[in-house]
Amino acid sequence: MKQSEIIQQIKGKGFKITPQRRAIIDAMLLAERPPTAKEVLDTVRLNFPDVGLDTVYRNLNLLSEIGCVIQINLKNSETSRFEILKRHHHHLICLGCGEATCLEKCMLEKHMDALKDQGYKIVGHAFEIYGYCPQCSISL
Ligand SMILES: [Zn+2]
Ligand SMILES: [Zn+2]
Ligand SMILES: [Zn+2]
User: Fold this and answer.
1) Could you say which of 9, 50, 65, 131 is the most buried, measured as most Cβ atoms within 10 Å of its Cβ?
2) Residue 52 is part of a domain; what is its CATH number?
3) For 88-124, what is each residue's pLDDT tens digit?
4) 66 and 98 inside one domain
5) Residue 37 pLDDT > 80
């Protein structure tokens, strides 16, 4: 999603665009990898030194609720990462450093089709793989 699309989505749901909110969105868009709330805060604080972690969490939760951001690492909320929604995909989470790697393919789609054939109405799914990245594996 582009910045303009996200802003449109927020306005469409009846929320205001504050300078802090815009800065949080920009920090998300600038991040090379899905950031943690703390990393978003560090970026936002360069321009808004008064912003607190609560504000960042509140905004990230809002963005998740309206479907602009997905939360990664469902197992541990403190190390959760947030990513601007692109295509549907899943993540491999390193239990050592917390790095989230985006996986190209969804392996669950055909299972969803099978469930639909059984009469279930499926609205979505979440799936994560946990392990250790090559770097963290060395020091295990
Ligand atoms: Zn790692
Ligand atoms: Zn991803
Ligand atoms: Zn999937």
Assistant:
1) 9
2) 1.10.10.10
3) 899 999 999 988 999 988 988 889 999 999 999 988 8
4) no
5) yes
Q: State in Å: Cα 71 to ligand 2 middle.
A: 9
Helix (H, G, I), strand (E, B) or coil at 100: strand
Closest ligand to Cα 86: 2
The answer, yes or no, to whether residue 33 has pLDDT greater than 90, is no
In this predicted model, what pLDDT tens digit does every residue of 46-64 receive, in sequence order? 999 999 999 999 999 999 9
Among 90, 79, 94, 81, CA closest to 135:
94
* Residues, beta carbon < 5 Å, ion ligand 1: 94, 96-97, 133, 136
Number of domains making up the chain: 2
Both 1 and 15 in a single domain? yes
What distance in angstroms lies between residue 119's CA and the mean position of ligand 2's atoms? 30
Residue-number span of the structural domain to which 78 is assigned = 1-86
Cα-to-centroid distance, 106 and ligand 3 (Å): 4
DSSP state of 36: B
Contact (CB, 8 A) for 28 and 84: yes
* Residue that the structure tokens 């541990």 belong to: 76
* 78 and 34, same domain (yes or no): yes
Q: How many residues does the chain have?
A: 140
